[in-house]
Design a protein that fits this description.
The chain has 128 residues and is of the alpha+beta class. 26% of the residues lie in helices and 27% in strands. It starts with 8 loop residues before the first helix and ends in a 10-residue tail after the last strand.
Length: 128
Amino acid sequence: MTPFGELTERGQARRLRRLAATALQQYALVVSRIRLIAVHTNCLFRIDTVDGAKYALRICTPGEHTLADNLAEITWLTALQRDTDLHVPTPINNRNGSPITMAEAEGVPEARRCILFEWIPGRPLDDM
């Protein structure tokens, strides 16, 4: 098997898609589609469910942000959702009640933190 770091971006995304499928098993969802949206600092997938719900799954790149960074972001987004009229992506807890899910997949060198968010429809800012 080709080492993860030697794969093209597309090859890495394919392996991370398998990791996404594994992570999503920890949520109360019936997934119909996992679609790659972006690969930047993190890998972002759009998740469609059989009941028509949509989500964004972020797979965090190791070493880019700490667990404390992720928890601070989740706390901030939750506070914005609760305390303002802003429509921000709401983190979704997994079956264990945690907003962060650890997942592994063959061919991906280490476990990754995954965060599932409510999908907010719209166009990317760089498309405007």
